[in-house]
Amino acid sequence: MSGFGWAEFARDLPVALGAALGVMLVTFLIALRKGVHRIVDVAWGLGFAAVALVSYAMSTGDGDDGRRVLVTVLTVVWGLRLAVHIGRRGRGHGEDPRYEALLAKAPGNPALYALRTVYLLQGALVWLISLPVQAAFHLTGTLDGWAWAGTALWALGLAFEAVGDSQLARFKADPANKGRIMDRGLWSWTRHPNYFGDFCVWWGLFLVVCTDPAVAAATLVSPLVMSFLLTRGSGKALLERHMAGRPGYAEYRARTSGFFPRPPRRS
């Protein structure tokens, strides 16, 4: 029989928020020194890892140790892989056009505007989206079918992200592909294997707490917010607007799924 420490969960929520905001504030100071705000994308994954590690430490003596270790490992592995990948991808590049456009219309001080609308907002989102992770540390029942189903979905998501990112990096590294649309491998099944992977990762982590219906109901907002960001917010929708004018993209879009993988349509 599973139990849940609601009081302990509430106690640790502000600490987790502090960890997420702390990562973003440190990143903001580094960004000011370097004069480039694109490094906040690296901090996104690091923020989730920090929340998991702080929550693990705070929950010592609470919950089931097996679940605590499992959720910590899953979150940290995902967060660090994402941070390393984005860091390598952005090395040697200037500012991200998204942040250039944002700061160009900043009222008043651009740095303070970036702090409010980018760093603090992303810190708050890290905290909100990671609620299932934070809650998992306070579930007392041993690992069950929900936990293993969530782990399997997490593994599928991580594989989609890692393989898709690797395929895209190899494609871009070939000079013969300059100006062409990546439509091979996983990218022939979905236009966004990395975003679909994120979707699976966070619904998988949510499944880990579904052993307790009350906890699942209290944290359902988290995967829903992540799903919205991936499909309608700063993920798929924003990228597709950017790619719309590229030669060949309309044809690629017509034959390839926009999110959930499926075999490509015939031309």
From TrEMBL:
This protein's UniProt keywords: Membrane, Transmembrane, Transmembrane helix
Transmembrane segments: 13-32, 39-57, 69-87, 118-139, 145-163
InterPro entries: UstE-like
Gene3D superfamilies per UniProt: 1.20.120.1630
Keyword Iron: no
Pfam families for the chain: DUF1295
Electron transport as UniProt keyword: no
Protein name listed in UniProt: DUF1295 domain-containing protein
